[in-house]
């Protein structure tokens, strides 16, 4: 339950308690004035009414206490949620940093492989690239010098070259 709803309930309880206090005061004043003027007072009736009012007041006080306890519990839950949210944000930041470093390492590895394949004779490079997974081959070919990659493309099997090309299109 939201804190504003709790405050609303608490306010209603307080208003109820105030109304009961006013009724008790009115009853007391009317009882005293009736005694002073000599009017007959139906003590049993008014006593029963006073008893009912006191019972209602007691129930309202109990409800108010329960609401206070529930409000404390909700506040503790809220604080716990906020703490966990902060922890999750910190974890997300750490993971983002980790994945950025991982991506950088992966990029460096692909760049190194591209330089190695550029230095390899085109026929031999084509054979080896053709044996690689098309995704890996696409990553390497994208990082190679375009002229050197073009020479290698001439030696790659057309079926394998089309698979590598599909992966290059997906990467861009």
What does this structure look like?
The protein is mainly α. It has 2 domains: about 1-105; about 120-170, no CATH class. The protein contains 6 helices and no strands. Helix 1 packs antiparallel against helix 2 and helix 2 crosses helix 4. The longest helix is centred in the middle third of the chain and has 77 residues, at about 45-120. The mean pLDDT is about 85.
Q: What is the succession of H and E elements?
A: HHHHHH
Helix content: over 70%
Rg computed from alpha carbons, rounded to a whole number of angstroms:
41 Å
Number of domains: 2
Total number of strands = 0
**Count of DSSP H/I helices:** 6
Which structural class fits the helix and strand makeup? mainly alpha
Cα(first) to Cα(last) distance is 49 Å
Major β-sheet, in short? Answer: none
pLDDT average, as an integer? 86
């Amino acid at each position: 339950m939201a804190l504003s709803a709790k405050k609303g309930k608490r306010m209603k309880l307080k208003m109820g308690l105030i109304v009961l206090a006013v009724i008790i005061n009115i009853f007391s004043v009317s009882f005293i004035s009736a005694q002073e003027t000599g009017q007959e007072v139906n003590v049993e009736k008014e006593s029963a009414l006073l008893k009912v009012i006191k019972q209602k007041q007691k129930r309202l006080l109990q409800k108010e206490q329960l609401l206070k306890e529930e409000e404390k519990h909700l506040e503790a839950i809220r604080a716990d949620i906020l703490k966990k949210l902060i922890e999750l944000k910190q974890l997300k930041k750490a993971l983002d940093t980790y994945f950025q470093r991982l991506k950088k390492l992966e990029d460096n590895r692909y760049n190194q492989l591209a330089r190695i394949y550029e230095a390899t004779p085109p026929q031999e490079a084509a054979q080896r690239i053709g044996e690689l997974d098309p995704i890996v081959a696409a990553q390497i070919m994208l990082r190679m010098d375009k002229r050197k990659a073009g020479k290698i493309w001439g030696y790659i099997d057309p079926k394998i070259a089309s698979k590598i090309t599909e992966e290059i299109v997906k990467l861009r």
